[in-house]
Amino acid sequence: MATFAKPENALKRAEELINVGQKQDALQALHDLITSKRHRAWQKTLERIMFKYIELCVDMRRGRYAKDGLIQYRIVCQQVNVTSLEEVIKHFMHLSTERAEMARSQAQALEEALDVDDLEADKRPEDLMLSYVSGEKGKDRSDRELVTPWFKFLWETYRTVLEILRNNSKLEALYAMTAHRAFQFCKQYKRTTEFRRLCEIIRNHLANLNKYRDQRDRPDLSAPESLQLYLDTRFEQLKIATELELWQEAFRSVEDIHGLMCMVKKTPKPSLMVVYYAKLTEIFWVSGSHLYHAYAWFKLFSLQKSFNKNLNQKDLQLIASSVVLAALSVSPYDSTRGASHLELEHEKERNLRMANLIGFIIDPKLESREVLSRSSLLAELATKGVMSCVNQEVKDLYNLLEHDFLPLDLASKVQPLLTKISKLGGKLSSASSVPEVHLSQYIPALEKLATLRLLQQVSHVYQTMKIESLSNMIPFFDFSTVEKISVNAVKNGFIAMKVDHMKGVVLFGNSGLESDGMRDHLMIFAESLNKARGMIFPPSKKESKLGEMLPGLAEVVEKEHKRLLARKSIIEKRKEEQERQLLEMEREEEAKRLKLQKITEEAEQRRLASEFEQRKNQRILREIEERELEEAQALLQEADKRGKKKGKKPLIEGEKVTKQSLMELALSEQLRERQEMEKKLQKLAKTMDYLERAKREEASPLIEAAFQRRLVEERMLHEHEQQQEIELSRQGHDGDLQEKNRLSRMLNHKIQFQEMVVNRRRAEYDRLRADREERLNQILHRRRQEREYQRKIIFYVRIEEERLRRLHEEEEARKREEAERRRKEEAERKVKLDEIAEKQRQRERELEEKERIRRESLLGRSTDGLSRSPDLPGGSRPIEPAAVAPAAAAAAPAPTPGKYVPKFRRGAETAVQAPPPHDSWRSGGSGSSSGARPTWSSTRGLRTSER
Hints:
This protein is mostly helical.
């Protein structure tokens, strides 16, 4: 990041970088300077730097850089020189718009330049192949390459500027201008998506303005200038939305305008309200809300009649006719009959929103149709004098459809009136804000209404009618369309009729037992039958039926008891419900009391604020009055100095000199001086007229004589010049003839030279053309070979990669198999070792068992031999067997073969001399004791030797 001591150095460095073509470095240098905290004090150099920075951003289409720079510059000059920021932003938008228009003109010029005879001569083979593959026309490609990037940048410019200028009281006018230009951009290029986003951006800005009320430099919507700017922006948004036919966005724009009016609690000017209701008529008509369309027309009529003093009688009749026809176009029955509860809630909410938009406040707890309906609208039109302003055809149509009863002639009388009405309409000359009125748009709805009225009136007269007769009575539609219309009318309870196609008749009236007509007749018929029965069979004297009632008395008592219990439970429930309602009422009363207390506190705060504002206004008025008094004194002193007024000073309002009185005196003095000056000028002008007339009278004969002399001189000069011209022309002609005769000898040589030059140039052209074709063929051949080579290289590389991949996979598989084999061998070896160890342990157990048995046998023999030995002489005690056996073994020599061994010695000798079996298995050699346990190594060695 480069640092500069002065901003001028950064600007100079940026210009040097631009001159050598390093625009990115220049932009980065200026960006570092603008975002640096060292240069936060505004100066004129910073403005020049911003101009250069903006030019670089636009040239390189760096929207993010431009936004960062403008935000930093706003911080610098927000409180010091906001005009500089305004100029920079205007320059930014101007450059972006200019570059976008330039790109568009270049694209158009490129399309015009492509209009040549031989397209292949101006295009490369790659371009032709690309056009064949993509199927894209030249205009689409040029728009995508040239126009679209600049239009994206221009749209980003508008968004950036709106984001920087939002909710700033010092830049409201520039914000409104930017919004208007963005709207025009969307309108000019039919950018519906961008228009929706733009409306959402502006809507969010207003929402944030109301959300953050403690924001610094926040616009005050109560100020007339700010309110007018915001309303103009929303009305422009509404106009563009209707022109682009974005009706949903237009309705939201109308809601924005209505919300803004409710926010500031102030009605805009009548000219704007005319536009407001005119656009509402279009929106409601497109959405199918004919009732609210008629109410909007009624509001528009009231505004035009009250505030438009230039409105002529023809335009007033046209607007009034639109109001009446719009009211008649409303369906005469309620279409929400039989709808679900959810649909009714949605319809109520929708009606509430639309009624608020046209200026009717409706309680949401009430049904909206009780307030706004077709009948109430027609009654209001009659009372407000609208019917007296309409055309005669519209008035006759209204009487036919609403008051007259002509079941057979209604359609025939309505049709010519509709034909005349369809020709009425046009542009209003004295109401420019009202759109062009065409009464023909109401003809289909009026034809449908006339059909419904005819069916309703015929149903009151006839019970049965042929389909053919009914079709002849309705010339507007065929019978299938009439049947569809009647289905909806019957569904909503407007008329009662049935169609029998098998008999070819239409049945009017409802013959069901629950119908109103049949209910009265059946009631009267039942009463008559009861009277006749009483006359034929008079009632006899009834005997006491107490005996008959006694058997069922217990059942009656039980039923009565149950009924009383049920009544008691109902009474208890009603008491509980009443107590709950009382609690609810107490809560509501408490909530109302708290709300009233809050309203009282707010009113007190408002009163204190109003008193403070009133004192402030009185102080300001006193200061203004004192300042005016000082100015009046100054004017009085100046008047005394000039001496224009002599005599008594003017005293107004109790010896009080005011500025107004002195201004009137000064104006009267100026008027008197002006009149005196005019008189002097008139007198001077009359004197000058006399002098000028006298001069001209004296100069007239002299001028005439000079004119005659001038005529003679000019005639002689003309004749002399004419003679010279003739002589020169004759000499030139003679010279040209001589030159022609002299050059005619060279004509054949000239033709031969021309043919030689043409032939040489033709040969040179053919040679160059052949060279060019050969060079193009070579280039095409070389490129074809290169493509073939590239394809082969890719093919070989793909094959080699496939081979390496297979080898790698085979190697991986081999390694996996080898590992599996090793794992299996290891498992088998482990199993074998476990088996060998198990066998070893089994053999050890067997050997231990044999050793134990052998020891037990040896121990048993030793005990028997010692018990049988004789006592020693001398009466001494016998020696212990454990001590005798080793001694005997050591003293007794080894028995020789054939030598007699006493019987008592045989057991000891056998025990000493007989070696234990498998002595090599024991550890410790010959010195080890006979009771030592064998080890695993000795056993293993033994088994190995056995093998």
